Amino acid sequence: MSTKTIEEKQYLVRFKADTKSHLTVLDHDICMTKCPDKICTIFCPAEVYKWEGLRMQVGYEGCHECGSCRIGCPYQNIKWEYPKGGHGIVFRLA
Amino acid sequence: MSEKFDVIVVGAGPAGTSCAYTCAKNGLKVLQIERGEYPGSKNVMGGVLYRKQMEEIIPEFWKEAPLERPVVEQRFWMMDKESTVSFGYKGLEWGKEPYNNFTVLRAPFDQWFAKKGIEQGVLLINETVVLECLTENGKVVGVRTDRPDGEVFADVVVLADGVNSLLAKQLGYHKEFRPDEVALTVMEVINLSKDKINDRFNLEDNQGCTIEIFGDSTKGNLGTAFIYTNKDSINIGVGTTLSSMIKAKLKPYDLLDYLKTHPMVRPLIEGGESAEYLAHLIPEGGYHSVPKVAGDGVLLAGDAAQLVNAIHREGSNMAMASGTMAAETIIDAKKRGDFSETSLNQYRETLYQSFIIKDLEKYKDATHTFEHYPQYFKEYVPMLNRAASKFFTVDGTPKKEKQKEIMKSFTSERGTIRMIQDMYRAWKAVK
C-alpha cells in the first residue's frame, strides 16, 4: 500500500534516536504570545512540532534533519544542532 | 586523534567524496568525516545523477556503480487539476554509452562512491559530527568533532557538509539562509514491479524516464514535483520554496499525497508499495546566495556552497565538479606550500569560470522572479491547459477562429499589457 498519513510515512523510516534532543525551542512564551500560526507545526515534514496549549512539544526522534525549522521559524526560536554522530535518521534508499 | 592530515573533508556526499577521492589519488593524506552511520544515510536526492561529472572522476563508472536506469526520456508536464500539457524528449542515444544521466538511489550509491575513495587511501570515519572548525590567527587549522579527544588538524578543511552547513555559518561565510533561498522537498520511494514500470512508462528493461511536473503539482506554488523510474521502484516527490510553503500554510506530506492521488499521477503508481519517506532542503538561492567559498585553510563545495541549478535540477553534478576543483586547488596549494586564502582562491576562480557559476549566473533572478510573481505557476499553467483543450477539441469551429478565441481569452484574463510584461519578465529571468 502507498502511504496516506504522516504517521504511515514516518513508520517507513529508520531512526536511531539519541537520548538527548538536538532541537531546542528557546522560549516557549514566544510561541504562545507572538506566533499565532505556529507555522513550524505546519511545514515540518515530519510533524516534529506539536503545540500543546502552553508549550511546544518537540518529537526530535522523528526528525529528518532537513533544517526547515531553523530557517523557517519566524522568531529564530529554534536551536538546531546535528544529532550525535551515528544517531538520528538513517536513510536506507534514496 | 590529534594527528595531522593534508586535508580534512567534512561530509561524504558527492562533493566531499569527489574531493577526498581526487586528493587521495594524488597522494595526499585525507581524512573524511561523515556524521551518518554510513555515507548516504543522511543524503537525499530526487534521483538523477549526471554521467559527465562523475565520469571525469571515475571513467566508465556505469560498469560498476549501483545505478538504477539510464534515462532515455525526460518529460515535462504543465499540470492542471484534470489535465496536463506535456512535452519531452526521448532518445535512444541516451540509453547507450556514454549515456546522459541515470536514476540512482543515494544510500547505495554514496556508499559505493565513498568506498572508491577508501580504495584510493582516504581514511573515512563515520558516525562523527564536526562541531566546529579550529582556527589559529584566523586560519582554519583543523576541526573539533564529537568524539572524545576529537581534535584533528590539517592544512586544509573542506566543508562539504551539505545544505545545513552550520560550519560555514560559524565561520561567518554566510548568514542564516532565508526561507526563499531553500526548497523543502519530500519524496517517497514506491516499490513497483519492473514489468509495471516498463508498461506504464513505455520503457524497456534498461531504460528510465523522468517527469518534472509544474502547476497543480504544487497547487500553483513555486516549486516542482518529479517522478523518476528506478529498476523496480519509483521516486515521487514534490517541493516548493520554504517561503511558499509557509505563505500557503502547506503541510509538505499533504502536498505529496495530493500529488500521489492526482488523477494525472495516480495511475502511474497504482498498486505500489511505499518503501521510504524522505525530507530534505535544497539550496535554491542560486548565484546571489553563493557564500564565500575559499578562506585561509578552508574551502566550501557542493550544497554547502549553494551550488544547485534548480531550473535544470542539477546539483549532484555541481557537487562533484566543485569537489574536484577544490581537490585540484589543494593539490596545487600543497606544491606551493601555501594554504592562505590568496592561494586557495584558485578554487574560487576556477569555480567562477566553470559551467557551475556561469549557469547559476544565467538564472540568477529566476527564483526571485517566479517567487515574486506567482502568476506563472498559478495562472499561466491553467490557461495553457484551457487553450490546449480548446484547440484540440473538434467542435466544428474553424481553427483560425479557435486561435483568435484562445488569444482573446489570454489577453482578457491577464490584460494585453500585463501579459506582455509577464512574458518579457520570464524571458529576462531565464535568457
From TrEMBL, chain A:
Coiled coil: none
Keyword tags: Electron transport, Iron, Iron-sulfur, Metal-binding, Nitrogen fixation, Transport
Pfam family, any one: Fer4_ETF_QO
Domain annotation 4Fe-4S ferredoxin-type: ranges: 54-83
GO molecular function, one term: iron ion binding
InterPro entries named among the record's database cross-references: 4Fe4S_Fe-S-bd (IPR017896), 4Fe4S_Fe_S_CS (IPR017900), ETF-QO/FixX_C (IPR007859), Fd_FixX (IPR012206)
Keyword Iron listed: yes
Family designation: To ferredoxins from P.putida and C.tartarivorum, ferredoxin I from A.vinelandii, ferredoxin II from D.desulfuricans.
Primary role: Could be a 3Fe-4S cluster-containing protein.
PANTHER family in UniProt: FERREDOXIN-LIKE, FERREDOXIN-LIKE PROTEIN YDIT
Protein name: Ferredoxin-like protein
Organism: Cytobacillus firmus (Bacillus firmus)
TrEMBL record, chain B:
SUPFAM superfamilies, per database record: FAD-linked reductases, C-terminal domain, FAD/NAD(P)-binding domain
Pfam families, per database record: ETF-QO_FixC_C (PF26311), FAD_oxidored (PF12831)
Keyword DNA-binding included in the entry's annotation: no
Residue span(s) of domain FixC-like C-terminal: 367-430
Protein family according to the UniProt entry: Belongs to the ETF-QO/FixC family.
PANTHER family, sorted: ELECTRON TRANSFER FLAVOPROTEIN-QUINONE OXIDOREDUCTASE YDIS-RELATED (PTHR43624:SF2)
Protein name: Electron transfer flavoprotein-quinone oxidoreductase
Organism expressing this protein natively: Cytobacillus firmus
